[in-house]
Design a protein that fits this description.
Part of the signal recognition particle protein translocation system, which is composed of SRP and FtsY. The protein is α/β, with parallel strands linked by helices. The protein contains 13 helices and eight strands. Helices cover 51% and strands 13% of the residues. It has an eight-stranded mixed sheet, with helices on both faces. Bound molecules: guanosine-5'-diphosphate. Guanosine-5'-diphosphate (GDP) binds next to α6.
Length: 313
């Protein structure tokens, strides 16, 4: 991910390094290159504008004209502004004073929520927590089974509703009929949290349903779950390969469930990825984790400064 953005920016800076003093036209040319590289990488237009105007203002100011090495100073500014766009500081999970900490996952179907539940569960378990995964995606019985498989791989227990009464629903639901489900996801989320309390799990991760596109009924369902369980964190999982739809999708989820943090998934892919990078800036919510593969280990805390260095490497 970001290989072509990274190559373009590196090439831009290479041109700049040949020069000693920088004229205004050198700086304008550099900013034009940066702008095109970001747009080609699918970074959202308002983010590109904000980014390039911050760079222009600083690059034309004293910090560059008085620098011993102006080109290096410009690179430093770009790095700092990129860190800012990516959310600034690394933000860690907000743990509840009175456990269990409740983490709700939201996002489009296929974005990687269920996979993330396992990864996050394992990551927490490795730090000495005792997480419980809760299957509140009841649109597709397969989703419950999938969470159970993921939980088993991660070595993290799963709370799932009884499925004795779901015969035949799979076919109906998989054919995409409305938002009928084989259980009440709000009730299941509540019961999962009660179970966590009873069995002394200190973190609960609630997996919720998503659609391939933003869907009013499912957004309402997610909002109802949020209202019922008052999570400490609501993580919006977004597939980094989503392209330009990232901004619209993120805004819809922000409005629907007011998420507290973002998880970028599928960062191991070779898509341009810039749209996903725009999400923190557009929503004002930090990117907290990244998912970088299908295995339960392919998971990292997101550090804006490290990501910026990787892109500008
Ligand atoms: P959900 O519908 O949001 O719960 O999404 P899933 O967790 O079921 O993921 C959808 C598909 O994406 C599955 O085939 C996963 O194996 C795959 N997937 C999830 N996260 C990643 C990731 O970080 N990298 C890659 N390459 N694939 C992923």
């Amino acid at each position: 991910m970001f290989a072509s953005l990274s190559d373009r920016l590196t090439a831009t800076f290479k041109n700049l390094r040949h020069k000693g003093r920088l004229t205004e036209s050198d700086i304008n040319a550099t900013i034009r290159d940066i702008r095109l590289a970001l747009l080609d990488a699918d970074v959202a237009l308002p983010v590109v504008k904000q980014f390039t105007s911050a760079i222009r203002e600083r690059a034309l100011g004293a910090e560059v004209s008085q620098a011993l090495n102006p080109a290096q100073q410009v690179v430093k500014i770009v790095n700092e502004e990129l860190v800012a766009i990516l959310g600034g500081q690394t933000r860690s999970l907000q743990l509840a004073k009175n456990p269990p900490t409740v983490i709700m996952l939201a996002g489009l179907q296929g974005s990687g929520k269920t996979t993330l539940a396992g990864k996050l569960g394992k990551w927490l378990k490795d730090q000495g927590h005792t997480p419980l995964l809760v299957a509140a995606d009841l649109q597709r019985p397969n989703a419950v089974t999938q969470l159970e498989v993921v939980g088993e791989r991660a070595g993290v227990p799963v709370y799932a509703p009884e499925r004795g009464n779901m015969g035949g629903h799979d076919a109906v639901l998989e054919s995409g009929e409305g938002t009928r489900s084989f259980g009440d996801p709000v009730a299941v989320s509540r019961q999962g949290i009660e179970q966590a309390r009873a069995r002394q799990h200190d973190v609960v991760i609630v997996d919720t349903a998503g659609r391939l596109a933003v869907d009013a009924n499912l957004m309402q369902q997610a909002a109802d779950i949020r209202a019922a369980i008052s999570p400490d964190e609501v993580l919006f999982v977004i597939d980094a390969m989503i392209g330009q739809a990232a901004v619209e999708t993120a805004q819809a989820f922000q409005e629907g469930v007011d998420f507290t943090g973002v998880v970028l998934s599928k960062l191991d892919g070779d898509a341009r990825g810039g749209a996903a990078l725009s999400v923190a800036s557009i929503t004002g919510r930090p990117i907290m984790f990244s998912s970088i593969g299908e295995s339960v280990k392919d998971f990292e805390v997101f550090h804006p400064d490290r990501m910026a260095s990787r892109i500008l490497d």
